[in-house]
Amino acid sequence: MYVGPGSQLKRLLGCAGLRATKDCGCDDMAAKMDGLGPKWCRNHAGEILDTMRAAAQRRGLPFSELGAGMLLRVAIRLGEGSLREHERAARGGGE
Are 34 and 9 in contact (CB under 8 A)? Predict the structure, then answer.
């Protein structure tokens, strides 16, 4: 099963105790990231980080550009790995 970069990012943030709220827009951005894929996310990292920054500000949370960027890069890499596995399984699982 493909787990895109948006879902990966939500999981990573959840490990730090940060969960989406119904009005933060996080679920919408995660779905957009998953739908458009890792390449889009890599090319639009600034947009994603801007969204993360705005969500943190609305919630009164501190925001680290460096930390958020690192989490985003990890989420994209995990999404890329998941996509490769999904594509391999769709082809019959051969190495």
Answer: no
Q: For the chain, how many structural domains are there in total?
A: 1
Judge whether 95 lies within some domain.
no
Give CA–CA dist 71/7, Å, rounded.
12
- DSSP assignment letter at 94: -
Mind listing the pLDDT tens digit for each residue in 53-66?
999 999 999 999 99
- CA-to-CA distance for 73 and 87, rounded, in angstroms? 21
Give a yes or no: residue 29 inside a domain: yes
Judge whether residue 93 has pLDDT over 80.
Answer: no
| Residue 61 forms part of a structural domain | yes
